[in-house]
Write a structure and sequence with these properties.
Helices cover 4% and strands 57% of the residues. The chain has 280 residues and is mainly beta.
Length: 280
């Protein structure tokens, strides 16, 4: 059973399901595929050049439960479904969850029909893909090896932590299409010029920066958002433009690596990404 939750940028939300006074009776989606082709003289048909998905149109129909509070429910419905606010639509199915950023094409329509109150909402997803829950991959991380109380063996000492440091890590993109990602480099000592790379395509993103203990470099690499942050401040100028390509995680197996020109062992490296799906 599917449950749909609309949430605006103010944090206000409405659930559309049988568990809510706002019941979803029907939801439809449509995504067109724009094909670019070339017509050649004296040749049958056309030659394929490229294709791209258009926006996703989502239409949600339902009814408001008539329980003596319908006027308040109507007012809440209109207040939260405000076209002036950015928003997202969440779909929960069993233990799974996907979401999509949406805009309201118009004010929702409400129609009183005898003893029922019906509504219709037209959404558009400018990015046509549904997103899965965020996934985290640790390319390098210092793991603790002790807890308190602690006893240190005489003449043996103790290991305080073990470095998970694999210069190449396999990441499985379970989505239907390529997806962007965010990578965070955290220094545990002096580090010089960090990079993350795709070992299958030999593409990499390199940031020329001198890091000390506690410093962080964050590279945000999404379809419509590219940023470099150094200790939380914008630092796109530190990107090594000549030696960098903003690559994506391809569907299926990817092999990511990290490195630094100096002291790569002093890095924690964490990759965050969300699988993208053609349907919910």
């Amino acid at each position: 059973m599917e449950r749909f939750i609309y949430q605006n940028e103010m944090g206000n939300s409405i659930e559309f399901s049988i568990f809510s006074p706002y019941i979803c009776t029907k939801i439809t989606e449509n995504v067109s595929n724009s094909i670019v082709s070339t017509k050649h003289t004296n040749r049958d048909g056309e030659s394929f050049e490229s294709s791209a998905l258009d926006t996703r149109e989502i239409n949600l129909q339902g009814s408001i439960v008539v329980n003596g509070y319908e006027e308040a429910l109507e007012r809440n419905f209109v207040r939260i479904l405000n076209p002036k606010l950015r928003s997202k639509l969440i779909c929960k199915k069993g233990m799974g969850q996907k979401e999509i950023d949406v805009e309201l094409e118009s004010l929702p329509t409400i129609k009183r029909n005898g003893g029922t109150i019906d509504f219709n909402i037209a959404f558009v997803g400018l990015n046509p893909y549904w997103r899965g829950l965020d996934k985290i991959e640790y390319l390098a991380l210092l793991k603790k090896k002790f807890t308190f109380p602690i006893v240190i063996p005489k003449n043996k000492g103790i290991i305080f932590g073990v470095k998970k440091s694999i210069l190449e890590t396999e990441i499985q993109n379970i989505g239907d299409v390529s997806t962007g990602f965010r990578v965070v480099f955290r220094a545990r000592g002096e580090v010089q010029n960090v990079e993350v790379s795709n070992k299958f395509t030999n593409e990499k993103i390199k940031v020329n920066v001198s890091m000390q203990k506690g410093d962080t470099v964050e590279v945000i690499n999404y379809m419509n958002r590219k940023m470099v942050l150094f200790n939380g401040q914008k630092a796109f100028s530190k990107l090594d433009v000549q030696n960098s390509t903003f690559f994506s995680l391809l569907p299926g197996k990817n092999l990511l690596g990290y490195n630094a020109e100096k002291n790569a062992v002093n890095l924690d490296v964490i990759v965050y990404y969300s699988p993208l799906y053609l349907g919910r």
